[in-house]
Give the backbone structure.
Amino acid sequence: MRICITLLLALFLGLSTGCHVNRARSAKSTEATAKTPLDEVTITGSYSIGEDGTVVYTIKPRPDGDLLSKRATEGMELELVDRWIRSTTSRARGSVARVISITGPYRDDPEDLEEPLLYDITIEVWSGR
């Protein structure tokens, strides 16, 4: 009987050591909602659109920072391009938009000269250092 009680005590002692109960409340996970202000977004890259609507290519180095994502859009009117680049970069919490591709200008119906010129744009969103 003494051996049985000793074994049970040893078993309970073995099970109780190393047990830790954390009674602290776990923190609620919060997602950062801070976005970059639109006027603080820098637009750079090798591609741009000239005043006459043509696509201009000049070699420019990558920004100094971290690449966050790559985004693309199709069929964008010229008047909306700058706003799209800035808002997309801001929503991705970046501060630098690097334009890596612009295809255009084109029209959905090439024979209808009243339609606006459209562009396909691809950007990289970077956080600056």
Summary: The beta strands are 42-45, 47-49, 55-57, 65-77, 96-106, 118-128. The radius of gyration is 29 Å. The chain has a mean pLDDT of 85.
